[in-house]
Design a protein that fits this description.
The protein is α/β, with parallel strands linked by helices. It has helices spanning 20-33, 40-46, 51-57, 65-76, 87-96, 109-117, 142-151, 165-174, and strands spanning 7-10, 100-104, 125-129, 158-162, 177-181, 198-200. It is globular.
């Protein structure tokens, strides 16, 4: 058990929300409308929570990025992601144990908020930091630093839980404990190489540590 940790902050997509298939479908519809190829092998090797680096790897011209953002949000918004199996009881148990919980996500506030509100996790998060609240995307620590300020927490009291190398890099840059969770996102295969402090097969295993 990690006695000094009082606060657990989570990535959302892939860590809590089962959204990998929805994200890919939205990319496929977006790139089809932009008449631009989306080779799956390049998508899977280049996928990042910083989707501009994904656009770049896929060769999408920069002048189309804003349109791509708008199309992706429209197509993704046609569906809402359900929670990954085991996430709901695990986070509710951590909440009952007295941990402060938060979310730092690359997603948009409107979409992430809707997914939280329709779940049993409504009301358990003390802070929600999303794409609109920051300038610098993951792995830059800005989003996590903002969450810690809002919670009035020191880094050594916090752990960040995510499924992508960028999540772990952000956590290390912010000097918090880092916890990696394997997911169905393409980034998951690169997660062990980012050397999180703890690597879990699924989020339910958090209860073995906290």
């Amino acid at each position: 058990m990690h006695q000094s940790i009082t606060t657990l902050i989570f990535d959302w997509d892939g860590t809590c929300a089962d959204s990998a298939h929805l994200g890919l479908a939205a990319f496929q519809k977006t790139f089809a409308e932009l008449d631009h190829a989306l080779p799956l092998d390049i998508y899977e090797s280049a996928y990042s929570p910083n989707w501009y680096s994904t656009y770049e790897a896929l060769g999408l011209p920069r002048e189309k990025w804003q349109t791509a953002d708008e199309l992706w949000l429209k197509h993704y918004g046609e569906n809402l992601a359900d929670l990954i199996a085991g996430v709901e009881p695990t986070l509710l148990r951590l909440y009952e144990k007295g941990y402060d919980l938060g979310v730092v996500s690359s997603g948009t506030e409107s979409r992430v908020s809707r997914e939280i509100e329709r779940s049993a996790l409504k009301g358990v998060f003390k802070v929600l930091v999303c794409n609109e609240h920051i300038v610098n995307k993951k792995p830059h620590p800005e989003g996590l630093e903002l969450a810690l300020r809002r919670l009035n927490r020191c880094p050594d009291e916090c752990a960040y839980v995510g499924d992508a190398p960028e999540d772990i890099q952000m956590g290390k840059a912010c000097r918090v404990m880092t916890i990696g969770v394997l997911s169905t996102y393409p980034t998951s295969s690169r997660l062990p190489a980012s050397s999180p402090d703890v690597l879990l097969d699924n989020l339910s295993d958090l209860l073995n540590h906290f």
